[in-house]
Amino acid sequence: MTDFPFEIAATDGKARTGALKTSRGDIRTPAFMPVGTAATVKALYMDQVRDAGSDIILGNTYHLMLRPGAERVQRLGGLHKFAGWSGPMLTDSGGFQVWSLANLRKLTEEGVTFQSHVDGSKHSLTPERSIEIQADLLGSDIVMQLDECTPFPCLRDDARASMELSLRWAKRCQTAFGHRDSQTLFGIVQGSVYEDLRRESAERLVGLGFGGYAVGGLAVGEGFEMMCEVLDHTVPHLPKDRPRYLMGVGKPIDLVEAVARGVDMFDCVLPTRSGRHGQAWTDTGPINLKNARFAEDDSPLDASIDCPASRDYSKAYLHHLIRCGEYLGSMLLSWHNIAYYQSLMARMRTAIAAGEFQAFRQGFVDGLDASKSD
Amino acid sequence: MTDFPFEIAATDGKARTGALKTSRGDIRTPAFMPVGTAATVKALYMDQVRDAGSDIILGNTYHLMLRPGAERVQRLGGLHKFAGWSGPMLTDSGGFQVWSLANLRKLTEEGVTFQSHVDGSKHSLTPERSIEIQADLLGSDIVMQLDECTPFPCLRDDARASMELSLRWAKRCQTAFGHRDSQTLFGIVQGSVYEDLRRESAERLVGLGFGGYAVGGLAVGEGFEMMCEVLDHTVPHLPKDRPRYLMGVGKPIDLVEAVARGVDMFDCVLPTRSGRHGQAWTDTGPINLKNARFAEDDSPLDASIDCPASRDYSKAYLHHLIRCGEYLGSMLLSWHNIAYYQSLMARMRTAIAAGEFQAFRQGFVDGLDASKSD
Predict the structure, then answer these.
(1) How much is the pTM?
(2) What is the pLDDT of residues B249-265, one digit of tens each?
(3) What are the chain A neighbours of B48 within 8 Å (beta carbons)?
(4) Which of A201, A333, B18, B112 is most buried by its number of CB atoms within 10 A?
């Protein structure tokens, strides 16, 4: 396996900033990866995603294997060409969506069989098939191992069994992945909320050796404090010189606190999903544009963000669009939210580089608290 | 009333090309006006609408008076500022949508009362109120008289009574409009499919004197041939030196045949509405991107159109997006369709200026016929 060079330019406490250098371009870390579920970041043009400051986007193997089909994507030139994204892409393994979306799931040592939530068609996903889809057919830059995403809550014995299965699948993924130029494979730490299981999962994955390490099985209902605790217990057992990716997280405050704990990469549907539902993220928390108080508010969402959606449209107009169910409302709020998330990542990178991350973090928390007490 | 200068640069048969010169910019004619129903051209950014070649867009008085409300738009700086469109705008009178969308309509000599299709609230629209909304509150550049849109089919006596009412309302609109700098008022010819009624309506409107003349009451079910006949009977009674606007029309072939009959302006929801439903317009007719034959078609919709949606995305990708119900599918097809319509208008303007419109028209019809016989 060829690991992408990961250059850490500065650290501040546990927080780090730098770049993961892929053949399709650098990923500035800490990085937020917008989710391009079905070869599109919902309601956005790819140039908006890129211009908002995104270096990498995520594709969902589950969605793409169902529609348009992984072999079809390959025949059409691969996922980058198909989706019109020339930068790096990370694909998930498909396991999480099988767990959360598919019907009639059946899990065995070999892998998982399921029925599509779209048309009921039958499919299977094994470690080998997931790697084939991601690395060979879609042509992903960062490939994720197939794992079982442990549910929450989860008994210790079940969490251990699940973690052991994910480790065996990690090894099979590694074998299937083999040695590749310009593509890398990440392992995924599981173990639910159990400190010793998380440590063991991390150590055994590191023993296998991956290009990067993800923390999986979080943001599944355990809550903010427990998520932070798991990161406190897990990140120290991951190698300093490899990128750390917290999967499926999260709200802005989650990102700030995870960066403080040494996480380098994130993905989440929240900015686009909440945007489609009329919610805009700001430093003082989320605001719901449907609210009548915005009906004649002529101010933009955030004039300090260099994005038309944040700067050039009044809240009154956005309120009107959302109330009317207009496409443009979803388009503009999704765009703003991605720009807001990327602005937050950029501010964190700057603060870490300047050795001012603790002050930034405190200021961010204070801003949220102040708005809550309004 | 200040009539906008209308400069006809060339004629070819009955077809003309030129420009209607407003204080917010020139409208190149023949012109297609995308419909910006609720202060947004659905699923498009205004810069896409403009860059596709649109000089003017249309706003719907009915929709805007319900949401966000005409007085609210005024308080927010008028429709141009609210919607982010700096070019000229035409607003309809609201009458057509009251007729097609509202509940519990009651028509009297005074005007029409109705209940909102959105929330059941009660409203009224008179000639005076329509002018107030369009000219004073929204701040439209081209204001349409309130008329009654005669249904189809319609008995002669009913068509006459309706036409007479529209003429009385035309006069009241003119009085209410008064003399204004930088805004103009268009009258609307009615009379259903009856040649003598259309002529009488046109002549009496011309006697009143308007900045432009619309042909209303078409595209309501009468069909292509009858629409062409009505234009044959109506347009010759309109002054050569004023713009002629065919309301609510239509398919590309309708536009070509109406231009051949001397029409200068059009509006229609078709390109955006059909785009949202997976249909793309081309010189060989509409194609439905949902169709399985596009699943691996790597070609763009029309590489000759200088629009990213037409040129830079494969039909296979569009097929995938539409199949998945993705926003981007509706966004791209609406964008392409507006660009296609504007490309068609530009080609007609060029052909008229070159004295080659009859050849263009024949070629266009032949292209459609050839595709039908495929």
Answers:
(1) 0.98
(2) 999 999 999 999 999 99
(3) none
(4) A201
